[in-house]
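Two records follow; treat each independently.
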Amino acid sequence: MTTMLLVAAGGGLAALGQFVFAHAIRSRRRLSALNLVACAALGLVFALDPPDRFRSLVAVGFLASVAPMATVVLATLRLTRTQQYRSAATFFAANVVGGVAAVMFGFLAWKSGITLYHKIF
């Protein structure tokens, strides 16, 4: 039950952040940057392997909710409605593939840094 409350609290904070971001970010590039940074941070948190409570609040609750995939889809739909199909496909693919790559980068950056640290010291 505690895990569910932590996820809900993190998701609630992310919803407030998403509300602010949706009105503040009008550029597709900034939206993509926010999505990729949130995905990289998500990968980093999972690489750190924190306690379950922290992971529930920060990773599953906040970071997974703040990555604005719904906003990415809406921006893609706006592009398709104006018949900018190539831009829509590129934007969507860059965010989906880039998001997965950013999660992997965040995870592997931490793990490879720890491995390198242990080899040096």
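The next record belongs to a different protein.
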Amino acid sequence: MFDTTIYIGRFEPVHNGHMALLQRALDSARSVIVVMGSAWQARSPKNPFTCDERANMMLAALTAADRARVQVLPMRDYYNEALWVQAVRKGVARIAAADARIGLVGHFKDATSSYLSAFPGWELIHVERQGRIDATAIRDAYFGATPGTVRAALNDLAAQMPASTLDFLERFAQTTDYPALQQEWRMLRGYREAWAAAPYPPVFVTVDAVLRCQNQVLLIRRAHAPGKGLRAVPGGFIEQRETVWQSCLRELAEETHCELPEARMRAALQSVAVFDHPDRSQRGRTITHAHYFDLGDAPFPAVRADDDAMQVEWVAVEKLAAMEEEFFEDHFHMLDHFLVLTTPP
């Protein structure tokens, strides 16, 4: 018997396979910590539900006695396994006793389960896969429905979900977030279908520009799916005859009309970082080269929205940490990398 068991997942949404592993965690220890991933991500077809919504789905499916033994630990996606592991350990240490015997519940599904090997000192409680359902199949059926046909669309999968999940999904389909997510889901499905016949899955290369001036950062709101309306740094796909440097300056100019002389931009360049986590983009494997510029205390360059930007604005660096849930993909973490917005784990 363990003092505490850990169960890590995204639970987008909660299904019976999740609940079976949670029950194993409850059967193996006096208390359970559920590490809820993607905790401050903006809504997207892959991460449609907030941490609180997912926690409520899960806890509502338990008895009152079992609910009292479960604590939910929200965890951001760091897109960096080493940082993420540190953050999980630190979060667990705040809850569990210092001398607690800890078990980690899970099963090796595929490459995304490699994190189960990243916690030496926690004994792995291996559980075989429970059922054949996964959250992706539920999301696909759900977003392919209409507000009035959700229950029918999920009929074949209903037996694989607790009542709390089904009830939540029906209620959520009546909100304005549901059709917006459906639009994103259809766009991404078409995007992937367009290159599905390629002999190998493509790897896309993009660029991003983090431009700082007077301790403010230039941000856009995306005009189109994916991520329509979300905040982002200016950027886009590299073109065939460009270097990443040339592409970065072009995308910055196209989206914001910030067209400072190249020599000025080179003088302002502080660093370049590659963001290449396999899950950073839902469009497919996408590697970006982010360029960080600092114009110091110089006057703000003139900017206006154009191309893929519906809005462009300067935002004070000290305000960015509170806006984490408003950012597209990993753009908040990109800013965090250059500007240190969060406390390192």
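Discussion point: The chain has a mean pLDDT of 94. How would you locate this feature using only the token line?
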